[in-house]
Specification:
seven-stranded mixed β-sheet, alpha/beta, Metallo-beta-lactamase, Chain A, 22 strands, 2 domains
């Protein structure tokens, strides 16, 4: 039994780890790399084994950096089963279609401008056949992935349907229990339930995105959001928020809803400018079985994601009209790292206005437009144009759906449980400084820690 670390190894995006048991190789996640267009394209087009040799894919959740290459490997010959939770399956259906659509439109846009065209990795026509390969299992139900490998999903508390995976791998008379964390969420997030760490692992593949820092308290984020919206509105500006369409958008809508109900922000229009976010919100509304029932609004408000002043744009013409509309407003639009989608048009038109605020509410990987905004570069390059960054930049890392170093440590302690011997840990899904800091922290607790590079393999 061995693992090959193919993606999200000493970096954050492109999650993919290959687990081989006997004659079968199974991928844990199959995500897109995100960053510089050409560099990402090169990585995404290079899969570590011929896809037709892949027996199955076990998906932790629907974010594109974990699921975004599924249509590509299917296009190249993967015929096996993709395993997900029910909510993840429904989110993948809309997210992958949106990913394909964006790739098609980006190619079309570049073609019209006479620029070098990068052909889509896959198109919207590739999504329906892929979804026929998807099978679902609820949390807590063991299932056979391939002969010699059984899996069980447990709630990771990250986004709707997100899971950590317990994998029991048997060769001959030996069975080993591997725990793949997926993306670990936070305790106390609105809507989503708290993480439920599984115990008893022989080895752990664990994310480490925020392994070197603690987030501000979640309870403080709503107060800061209220201040930012109110102050920007007073200047006559707009709040422009690059946000993942799944998870972050719904969390922001939830908090803005609460603030409107409590009359803590002015009644400015709030626009969710993303067909994907609208569809994803409908998926959220259809899966109340995974909500955190301890949340006040979950138990008292019938429509969590609909309220006065909230608008979901229906088409491109409505999206374009926002750029000529006067007066304060809030615009939430994907992508979360500002690399693709409608958010780039809003930044193109709004980054140069000092009345506006660009609000960053999630992790920004290296070499992304979002990272350059966080770094407050003097100019931003958007669609080939140099745009001065004069808008205010605010960062609310407390909105992250990733656990911070204390929460990651809490999760790992619960995985260890009462075992006298801490399980060894392979750290993935993190940039090197965060990984090294977290590795030092958990080595002090007795864990043997490795930080694999892309292509590294390890025996279980």
């Amino acid at each position: 039994m061995h693992v090959t670390f193919s993606g999200a190894a000493r970096e954050v995006t492109g999650s993919c780890h290959l687990l081989t048991v006997g004659d079968h190789t199974v991928a844990l996640d199959c995500g897109l790399f995100q960053g510089h267009r050409a560099q990402s394209r090169e990585k995404n087009a290079r899969f570590p084994i011929p896809p037709d040799r892949l027996s199955a894919i076990v998906l932790s959740h629907a974010h594109i950096d974990h699921a975004g290459r599924l249509p590509y490997v299917a296009r190249l010959g993967f015929k096996g089963t993709v395993w997900t939770t029910p909510a993840t399956r429904d989110l993948c259906d809309v997210m992958l279609m949106d990913s394909a659509f964006i790739q098609e439109k980006d190619a079309e846009f570049l073609r019209r401008r006479g620029a070098a065209v990068i052909e889509p990795l896959y198109t919207t026509a590739d999504i329906p056949p892929l979804m026929q390969q998807v099978k679902t299992k609820p949390y807590g139900e063991s299932f056979q992935v391939v002969p010699g490998m059984r899996a069980t999903y447990v709630d990771a508390g990250h986004i709707l349907g997100s899971a950590s995976v317990v994998l029991e791998c048997t060769e001959g008379s030996r069975t080993r229990r591997l725990i793949f964390s997926g993306d670990i969420g936070r305790w106390g997030q609105p809507i989503i339930r708290d993480p439920q760490p599984p115990g008893g692992g022989d080895v752990v593949i664990m994310e480490s995105t925020y392994g070197d820092r603690d987030h501000p308290k979640l309870s403080d984020m709503r107060n800061r959001l209220a201040s930012i919206v109110s102050e920007t509105a007073a200047r006559g500006g707009r709040v422009i928020i690059p946000a993942f369409a799944v998870g972050r958008t719904q969390e922001l809508v939830y908090d803005l809803h609460a603030l409107m109900r409590d009359r803590r922000i002015p009644g400015v229009p709030i626009y969710i400018d993303s067909p994907l976010a609208s569809l994803a919100t409908a998926v959220f509304a259809s899966h109340p079985e995974v909500y955190d029932e301890t949340e006040h609004m979950v138990g008292t408000v019938k429509e969590l994601f609909q309220f006065e002043r909230l608008h979901y744009t229906k088409d491109v013409s409505e999206s374009k009209a926002l750029n000529t509309q006067r007066g304060p407003m809030v615009i939430i639009s994907p992508s979360g790292m500002a690399e693709v989608g409608r958010i780039q048009h809003h930044l193109l038109n709004g980054a140069g206005d000092p009345r506006n605020t660009i609000l960053i509410v999630g992790f920004q990987a290296e070499h992304t437009l979002g990272r350059r905004i966080v770094e407050r570069r003097e100019t931003l390059r958007i669609f080939g144009e140099e745009v001065p960054l004069k808008a205010r930049v605010e960062v609310l890392n407390g909105y992250s759906a990733h656990g911070d170093r204390s929460e990651l440590g809490r999760w790992l302690d619960l995985v260890r449980g009462a075992s006298p011997k801490p399980p060894p840990v392979w750290l993935v899904h993190g940039e090197p400084p965060a990984q090294e800091a977290f590795a030092a922290r958990i080595r002090e607790r007795g864990h043997a820690v490795s930080i694999p590079a892309p292509g590294d393999a390890a025996t279980l």
